UniProtKB/TrEMBL annotation:
Database matches in InterPro entries: ABC_BtuC-like, ABC_transptr_permease_BtuC
Protein name (Swiss-Prot/TrEMBL): FecCD family ABC transporter permease
Primary residence: membrane
Transmembrane domains' residue ranges: 21-41, 75-93, 105-123, 129-150, 157-179, 205-223, 248-275, 315-337
Membrane topology qualifier: Multi-pass membrane protein
Amino acid sequence: MTGERAVRLGRFSRIVTPGDIRVAGLVVVVLIVLVLASLMVGDQLIPLDRVVRAFGPEATRLDSMVVVQWRAPRAFAAAVFGACLGISGAVFQSLTRNPLGSPDIIGLNTGAFTGVLVVISLGGMGYAAVSAGAVVGGVAAAGLVYLFAYSSGLQEFRLIIVGIAVSAFLGSINSWLVVSSELDAALRAAVWGAGSLNGVRWPQLLGAGALALALVALVPWLARRIAQLELGDDAAKTRGVRTEPVKAVAVVVGVALTALVTAVTGPIAFISLAAPQIARRIRRRSGGFDPVGAALVGAVLLAGSDLIAQHAIPAASVPVGAVTVCLGGIYLVYLLVRESDRS
């Protein structure tokens, strides 16, 4: 195709077209607009020029506090965490070769909630304890799914079915833990389980961002191998791909990206599910592992959802997880209607 060119990053290479570049540029512009809107809009509207100055030495003390200390961590966290969830969804959907193969569906968020409920039930109160419980719970759920889905190799369809079963089982445990907990503990768990960016500050964002950067550094290595896996295990083996180790690394990266977001914000649903699919549709590609597109769309979805969560209802702020669930439900209905029209 005219205008195609190869983009290389180490041993990773990808063919891109002018259309790909235009779409990516448009999504980046939308993301920048959403982040700037998050920095400007609030109880007090701050004009763009003052927002820009707030990051410099000429900023007033009030603007610096409101923009840099209060609004910026949340705005940037929405973009970073949305990108992490988008990449995680792309990894699992490519690995399972199924659009339902996302952390939401296969039980990672439910497992993280179980870990938090256990910590709170045991009297854990601090941010570190809750975050550790979320990570351990999510990783343990992923381990169970991987163990039960493994049969002479990781079976993609079994991974989804087992994930749904484990999610349902853990969901029943979560309900029992909430009902049997004291009222204060149950309320704390419910607030965390809704998924929110309210408590994000620079230390949490910088810590999670550093871990995310280390994980994303593995994505170029995975991309070429996942592209081979999408052709089938036998075809990948003939091309020299060690299929099971690659699948194991892919699962670890996908789980870790979801876990670090969940540990900070609580479970945020549907970003991982929808971002890779939307990225494919706007690029008009039927398949292929696209971590860059999924990351950009995930960032836009979470940044936009958080803007809605903060300002859609006057004098009230709802958890961003509630907004993503609503938007995700609308998106799934749209897909069902579209597929029924085609049949």
